[in-house]
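chain below, 142 aa
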Amino acid sequence: MGEKRSLEFKAALVRRLEAGERITDLERETGIFRAQIYRWRDAFGREGEAGLSRRPGRRRGYRQSRSAEGSGAVGAAPSAPAVTALDQLAPEVRAWVSELERTVARQQLELGFFSEALQRIEESRRPTSEAGETASTPPSRR
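prediction:
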């Protein structure tokens, strides 16, 4: 669970963002993810400082459909190149992303190996055109 920030800290951070400071600079300086800073900004815009003191999570009895939110396309591509986006992440997240990339690469190698093995098995089971030969592999000995 993340550490609790004071109301004054959150308000000061939102005011700096509204004054024109870059979100990337604020994120690097404070170590707080930009999504959280944006959530604080939105809460501050809706409810003022009272919105910053609210506990995280959905409010009881509060439900809003996706269509009512006016959200854009789901899964839209980020506007910035992936390299710069990765550079802006916290070191723990970068390490996690690197581990996931290694896992994907390993799985791609394994998939290539098994695809080639399956192809060889299928080729060995193809019927031959020569007379007198069987179309299947010989039975295994038990």
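The CA atoms of residues 14 and 84 lie 23 Å apart. The chain has a mean pLDDT of 76.
thats it, cya
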